[in-house]
Amino acid sequence: MSTTSKSSHFTKSEAVQPPLIGALLRMPWEAVQRHMLERLHERGFDDLDAAHLNVFQYPGPDGAKPSELAARLRISKQALNYLLGELERLDYLERRPDPDDLRSKRVALTPRGTAAITVIREAVGEIETTWAQQLGPKRFAQLRNLLLDLNQPT
């Protein structure tokens, strides 16, 4: 009879498998996100957190209907409306009547929201510069082109 429990198969003594592509994509994204938040906080946007960054991600929320934005971000309408409410209260955006359908709303960035997006883009530019130096310009261009290829509709 073995004295080894089932949980012993999951101990740290076993070799850790190399990360799969999901982790390899997530880890750089988390570094980008941390850098964006650092720059935002340094520039006075210290009321933003990681959840808010989802709303600002490319191509941005400006002009979108909340339902379209929720679908693009792959979150529930309720979760998005909560985030939009917070960002509205913090003066980053407004929900305005849709001129084409007065029953609907459209997201409009405020000057504060536009300024935050400028800081976000600058922070991402800094990360790209750092990575280009780390990988070399040719390899970084290859990485960027491969990611562009993966982001094309199939």
Q: What would your notes on this structure say?
A:
The protein has 154 residues and is mostly helical. It has a domain at 43-124: Orthogonal Bundle (Arc Repressor Mutant, subunit A). Helix content is 58%, strand content 10%. It has 6 helices and 2 strands, in the order ααααββαα. It has a two-stranded antiparallel ribbon with strand order 1-2. A hairpin with a 2-residue loop joins β1 and β2. α1 packs across α5, α3 packs across α4 and α5 (111-135) packs across α6. The longest helix is centred in the C-terminal third of the chain and has 25 residues, at 111-135. The model has no long low-confidence stretch (mean pLDDT 92).
Q: Could you state the oligomeric state of the chains shown?
A: single chain
The CATH superfamily title of the domain at 43-124 = Winged helix-like DNA-binding domain superfamily/Winged helix DNA-binding domain
CATH level 3 topology of the domain at 43-124: Arc Repressor Mutant, subunit A
Distance between the termini: 54 Å
Mean of residue pLDDT?
A: 92
Q: Rounded to an integer, what's the Rg over CA atoms? A: 21 Å
Q: Unreliable stretches, pLDDT < 50, 5 or more residues? A: none
Beta fraction: 5-15%
**Helix-strand category:** mainly alpha
Tally of helical runs? 6
From the spread of the alpha carbons, the general shape counts as globular
Structure at a glance:
With 154 residues, this protein is mainly α. It is built from six helices and two strands; from the N terminus they run ααααββαα.
How is this fold's topology laid out?
Layout: H1 21-42, H2 50-56, H3 66-73, H4 77-89, E1 93-98, E2 101-109, H5 111-135, H6 137-150
Antiparallel strand pairs: 1-2
Helix pairs in contact: 1-5, 3-4, 5-6
